[in-house]
Fold:
Amino acid sequence: MQLMMQHIYTVVATLLFLYALVTGVFLLMENRRPQSTLAWIR
Structure:
């Protein structure tokens, strides 16, 4: 059971990292003002 929970935490952390990465790339690829981009990232 404990091993299964560790795998679940790993999967969730990986998905959150990928979500943040995709969101960051998307925001940087849009031609927004730097202030708007920083506001979205924070």
In short: The chain has a mean pLDDT of 85. Residues 2-41 form one domain. The helical segments are 2-29, 34-41.
